[in-house]
Amino acid sequence: MLREIESLLSQRKILQHFITKILQKAGLTQSIHSLIASLPTPPKHGWDTIKLGEIGKICMCKRIMKHETNESGGIPFYKIGTFGGKADSYISQDLYENYKAKYPYPKQGQILISAAGTLGKSIIFNGEDSYFQDSNIVWIDNNQNKALDRFLYLLYINVIDWRRAGTKGGIIERLYNNNIKAIKIPLPPLEAQEKIVQAIERIELTINAAKERKEILQSKISSYIKNALC
Q1: How many CA atoms lie less than 13 Å away from 70 in the CB half-sphere?
Q2: CB 32, CB 209: distance < 8 Å
Q3: Cα separation of 105 and 127, whole Å?
Q4: Which terminus, N or C, of the chain has the lesser number of Cβ atoms within 10 Å?
Q5: What are the CA-CA distances from residue 33 to residues 46, 112, 180, 196, 210 (Å)?
């Protein structure tokens, strides 16, 4: 039995090598080091900084009253408790179309931000029919000639300290518009933003491919060992 297990562990190494070769041939295992090396180098003084309020207007959906919602169906209405998850409240199609046409509504790809509860929770708007709780869920209608949506998303989830920017002392922490407007971010030129985003997206792809490979191998190893011991 020990010899059988040793054989299986040997097969594991062969499988790892084989899958790595396949991924390399598919162009999915570019060196992390080479990807990092492809990132633009900041100038000696660092990237220029800008306040979020300077890249675009902070927007929110029209206020939805409780009597305008239902729990049975229609257009999903997301509140801070369901933001990023499954909606438990809905509004009618007619109300949705009316408010979407008359009042601010996010564009696909823009980043929705939680301004209450879990401060700074950021979700890329996928363009699906949905509506969002005013003041608690906001977005910046940013000028794409200044800041790319995908670049802002990276800053939102990795760089900005939202809790520090929030207002404390109430029942729940909040981000008021003035708090958000005052947040400073590093802002490279558009070309550098694009390079940073592309490199990080490739790194994420490489990491996800490695995770999938690990799960496949772990499943195969478990199966082999069970077969050997049964």
Answers
A1: 8
A2: no
A3: 10
A4: C
A5: 22, 32, 35, 14, 15
Cβ atoms of residues 185 and 191 within 8 Å:
no
Tens of pLDDT, residue by residue over 94-128, are 999 999 999 999 999 999 999 998 999 999 999 99
The pairs formed by 43-46 with CB atoms below 8 angstroms and a separation of 24 or more are 46/186
Cα gap 127→197, rounded to integer Å: 21
CB-CB neighbours of 184 under 10 Å? 12
Nearest-angstrom CA–CA distance, 192 and 194: 5
**Alpha-carbon span 204 to 158, nearest angstrom:** 14
Question: What pLDDT score was predicted for residue 57?
Answer: 96
Interval 6-32 mean pLDDT? 57
Contact assessment for residue 170 and residue 43, using Cβ atoms and an 8 Å cutoff: no
Taking residues 53-65, what's their average pLDDT?
96
Contact partners, residue 207, CB within 8 Å, separation at least 6: none
**CA dihedral (63, 67, 68, 69) positive or negative:** positive
